[in-house]
Amino acid sequence: MSTTEDHKERQVYELGYLILPSVTEDSLSNVVDSIKGIMKKVGGEEIASEDPIKIDLAYTMTKSIGARKYVVNDAYIGWVKFECEPSSTGDVDGEMKKLEGVLRFLLVKAPRETTFTFAQALKAKEDKIKELEEAKQAPVEAVPKVVE
What we know:
Layout (H helix, E strand, L loop, with lengths): L2 H7 L1 E9 L5 H17 L3 E21 L2 E17 L4 H10 L3 E8 L8 H20 L11
Antiparallel strand pairs: 1-3, 1-4, 2-3
């Protein structure tokens, strides 16, 4: 089988993940490196990724590690897009479940191009807040009354 045929059988996936907030800023890159290492271990090739950023969660989540139970309201969120054979996704799932620093993850098929990042979303949110604050501070003009 040629490399062209191998390439056709490969699929692009995106792995979104939440990392426990108990992971220190210094150790965060180690967890991300472990996640990316899983992609390489299954023969995957990284296409794109975004470093994790800390967010407030929409609801409380829990994770048990050994005898400890973590209850969290915030986490680091990030993603990595990679290409691999579809048969490797089970291995990715199994290895991700073993990572203690990972709160949750989701593996989905994805397009090759990246059209959304968390950094873009945060910038858009900040711009909207700024726009609304400026609108509140703008003087209200008198609206002429319509006389019939």
